[in-house]
Each structure stands twice: as C-alpha cells, then as structure tokens.
Amino acid sequence: MSISVKDVEHVAALARLELSEQEKEKFAEQLSAILKYAEQLEQLDTDGIEPTSHAMPLVNVLREDVVKPSLDIEQVMRNAPDEEDGQIKVPAVLE
Questions:
Q1: Cα(26)–Cα(34) distance, rounded to whole angstroms?
Q2: Rounded CA gap, 95 and 47, in Å?
Q3: Which residues constitute the domain of residue 19?
Q4: pLDDT grade, residue 31 (50/70/90)?
Q5: What is the CATH number of the domain that holds 9?
Q6: Neighbours of 8 (CB within 10 A)
Q7: Has residue 29 been placed in a domain?
Q8: Any idea of the CA torsion for 79, 81, 82, 86, to the nearest 10 degrees?
C-alpha cells in the first residue's frame, strides 16, 4: 500500500498541521515505507505462537503495604501554616 501526498494532506488537515510541499512528499515516502514494512510482517507464519501483550513477563515491583503508625496530630499541626478546628487551613482556590 502506498500513501499519496493527498492522504498526507488529509491527515495534516485533521491534525490541524500546516505542512510545506517538501514535508508532504517526505511524509508520504516515510509513511509508505512504514506500511511496506508492515506488509512484510503480515507474511510471517505465526501459527502456534501464543499472543502476548508484552515481550517480557510483568512482575509487580512495588513493595508490600505495611501498616505503620502515623504522625501525631499535634506534630502535624506544628508544621501547618494555618489551622482551624483540627484541620490544615489553606487559601481558597475557588471563590
């Protein structure tokens, strides 16, 4: 399959891109090369190959959740810029 300059112009218009004539021709060649390579991949015999979503098996690298004691409310409020009714008071974001 080959991509024409007209196809590139259409995609550029959808993406709201302004391309010069040189860029349109260059992108048409590059996109055609990509599709030609994809056509080569379609010719591969993939019978008996199990579908995968990742080339490598995924392993959870996150640590286990461990319950730890939290800071005392008085310690927290000592570092707060302002406090009201046991809550940290911050400037209003919305009016």
A1: 13
A2: 63
A3: 5-42
A4: very high
A5: 1.10.20.60
A6: 22
A7: yes
A8: -30
Which runs of consecutive H residues, i.e. helices, occur in the chain? 5-14, 21-42, 73-79
Q: Is 12 contained in some domain?
A: yes
Only one residue has tokens 């021709």, namely 25
Q: For residue 74, is it within any domain?
A: no
**Looking at residue 22, what is its pLDDT?**
96
What is the residue type of 10?
H
Residue type, 42: E
Q: Please report which confidence band the pLDDT of residue 69 belongs to, taking 50, 70 and 90 as the band edges.
A: very high
25 vs 9, 48, 63, 65, 82, CA distance in Å? Answer: 10, 41, 51, 55, 62
Query: How is residue 22 written in tokens?
Result: 């040189």
Helix (H) or strand (E) segment spanning residue 83: strand 83-84
Cα–Cα distance for residue pair 87/70, rounded to 1 Å: 16
pTM of the model: 0.50
